[in-house]
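Attaching the record inline, Q. Sequence:
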Amino acid sequence: MAVVLRAERTPSVPALLLRPWNSADAEPLVEAYRDPTLRRWTRLPVESPEDALRWLAVQRDGWADGSRLSFAVLSEQPDGPDRLLGNVVVKTSGKVVGSREVGYWTAAYARGRGVASRALDVLSGWAFDSLGVDRLALLHQVDNPASCRVADKTGYRYARTLPARPPFPRDGHLHLRMATPRGNPRRRRPCTGGGVPAP
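Structure, as predicted:
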């Protein structure tokens, strides 16, 4: 399945290209994973070209069986090569029919510019339109307030706090985005990092 998604440029962020990962992404992937913040929030370490090839194989296998549809997020540069900015993924989510889980990460040099929220919003719209799902879930640890902000910006509403379970050492927030706004009122503020929703 050759899926390519795009987000138009904004004053602070170039146009974004979302496409399935390929073997040419190994070197920029290793570079992105040198960031300790990224390594803190991800489960598959990428410290060498061999690690990168294993990581890319997981993404390729996920596309082959439909369990993990992962996109490299690139900046579209009109006068140079595209630059890797991050990753977004929609994956199978337990046994809930019509539900999938989303995830993302952003390279250190791309943070604070709305890349994660724009890429996740494009991915979410595609998932609703193309995968036949009616609910998407976003999970993150309670001590990751940046993910609360991304969730709120992209229409993922805080649902509840989940207890910690391996491999995650801390409780987590569950955010949901529905295909229709019915029964999913907009929160006034994002959740907090402390395990309870903001008032």
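Residues 182-189, 194-199 have pLDDT under 50 and may be disordered. Strands lie at 5-7, 16-20, 68-75, 83-92, 99-106, 135-141, 157-162, 172-178.

More tomorrow.
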